[in-house]
Amino acid sequence: MDKRFYSELLHIIGLTEIKDGGKKLIGRHKEGERMLGSILEDTIMQLDARDKLDRVKMRVNMEVPEMKDFSISLSN
Fold it and tell me: What is the crossing angle of helices 3-13 and 39-49, to 10°?
């Protein structure tokens, strides 16, 4: 995949590439750096506005509510 296309795709979705040791991971931007209008953030806002986030039963890290929102929004 072309690097420029890959970067733009991550931008549109609202994700970022994070380096963790020798690995490259893809994840949500940190709070304060999130991109309103991106597919991910819009999905989270819509699910939250419709009170759907708490109704979805998934096995995700419930200790970190943002991870739950992130996991749910990517799976829908």
Answer: 20
| Cα–Cα distance measured from residue 46 to residue 50, given in angstroms and rounded to the nearest whole number | 6
Structure tokens at 50: 């419709």
**Amino acid identity, position 25:** L
Residues 3, 24: Cα–Cα separation, whole Å: 14
The span from the CA of 5 to the CA of 60, in Å, is: 30
Over residues 8-44, the pLDDT tens digits come to: 999 999 999 988 889 998 888 888 999 899 998 898 8
pTM: 0.65
User: Do 48 and 54 form a contact (C-beta atoms < 8 A)?
Assistant: no
